[in-house]
């Protein structure tokens, strides 16, 4: 792969809408962060996949929410199903156990919210997490859906995104047993054909990794794609990374240049000590995921993609921002 080809891939990652849609977060969060920090005594870092809420017991509560992209609302059944999937992913990425969800649905078309509800019902069945309440706006001129989820994680076993260490290796893990999604060439659907037991086994692996303390940080691969999601982790941790593209697990039918932008149904990017990498790979592979060491973290706050001896910078996090959320700063 030539330097020009690498640069084209790097530019596609920088300008990908799944990533650029994250950038307004840097202006939105500061509007309420100060007041939240005062109430929660500093435990207010908002760059994780789910918020950690302290309790008096042995668990942190995990709280997350996702709004479904308006483009997906043209397929309301998929919107409903996906609203469950993405929320369960957020809890799993933290090493947690999902407990319950609520929703907010808006549509003046009974056929739309009926299909949303049917998609949600299938998601509840597949992922084993109940929908316990919500709110329906039956008279809006638009269709929308948002879901919030509650989970828990044992204290000391949580997987954060702002705690990565320089020198750690980066591992990517995917469920490759699937197909390109029905609504976007940048999605990978791999859960509808699996049993609830198979799905639970895949998500359980992150809890196992957290309880065995094998990871320094982690996230689920989401709308920004693999490199974009890793760059968010690097921004949170104040680090950079180099990704070896040839090491990324990918399905035969998808080109690498597209795969790095894909939002998979089940995919994680994590960091671990080099000496623990083999154990991490075994946990992922034992759950049915394809996993590989794809790079390394470093103190230089720049993210590179590489193939062989060629290397191109994707982000300079000393001067560029994705979400603007940096863990070390948020905890001060």
Automatic annotation (TrEMBL):
Cross-referenced SUPFAM superfamilies: PurM C-terminal domain-like, PurM N-terminal domain-like
Domain PurM-like N-terminal: 47-153
GO biological process, one term: thiamine biosynthetic process
Residues covered by the PurM-like C-terminal domain: 194-303
Signal peptide start and end residues: none
GO MF annotation terms: thiamine-phosphate kinase activity
Name of the featured protein: Methanogenesis marker 2 protein
Organism: Methermicoccus shengliensis
Lineage: Archaea, Methanobacteriati, Methanobacteriota, Stenosarchaea group, Methanomicrobia
């Amino acid at each position: 792969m030539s330097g020009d080809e690498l640069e084209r891939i790097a530019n596609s990652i920088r300008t990908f809408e799944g990533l650029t849609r994250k950038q307004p977060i840097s202006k939105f969060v500061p509007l309420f962060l100060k007041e939240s920090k005062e109430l929660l005594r500093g435990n207010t870092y908002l760059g994780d996949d789910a918020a950690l809420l302290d309790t008096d017991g042995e668990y942190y509560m995990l709280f997350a929410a996702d709004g479904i992209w308006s483009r997906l609302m043209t397929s309301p059944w998929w919107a409903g199903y996906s609203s469950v999937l993405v929320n369960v992913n957020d809890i799993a990425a933290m090493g947690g156990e999902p407990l319950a969800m609520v929703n907010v649905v808006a549509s003046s078309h009974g056929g739309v919210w009926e299909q949303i509800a049917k998609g949600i019902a299938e998601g509840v069945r597949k992922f084993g997490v109940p929908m316990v309440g919500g709110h329906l706006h039956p008279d809006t001129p638009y269709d929308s859906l948002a879901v919030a989820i509650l989970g828990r994680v044992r204290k000391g076993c949580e997987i954060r995104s702002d705690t990565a260490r320089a020198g750690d290796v980066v591992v990517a893990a995917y469920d490759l047993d699937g197909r390109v999604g029905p609504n976007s060439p940048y999605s990978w659907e791999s859960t509808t054909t699996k049993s609830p037991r198979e799905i639970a086994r895949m998500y359980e692996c992150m809890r196992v990794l957290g309880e065995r303390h094998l990871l320094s940080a982690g996230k689920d691969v989401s709308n920004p794609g693999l490199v974009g999601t890793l760059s968010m982790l690097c921004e949170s941790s104040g680090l950079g990374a180099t990704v070896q593209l040839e090491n990324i697990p990918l399905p035969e039918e998808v080109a690498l240049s597209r795969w790095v932008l894909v939002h998979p149904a089940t995919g994680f990017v994590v960091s671990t000590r080099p000496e623990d990498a083999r154990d991490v790979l075994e946990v992922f592979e034992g759950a049915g995921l394809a996993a590989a060491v794809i790079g390394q973290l470093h103190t230089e706050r720049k993210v590179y993609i590489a193939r062989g001896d060629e290397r191109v910078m994707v982000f300079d996090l000393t001067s560029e921002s994705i979400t603007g959320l940096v863990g070390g700063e948020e905890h001060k």
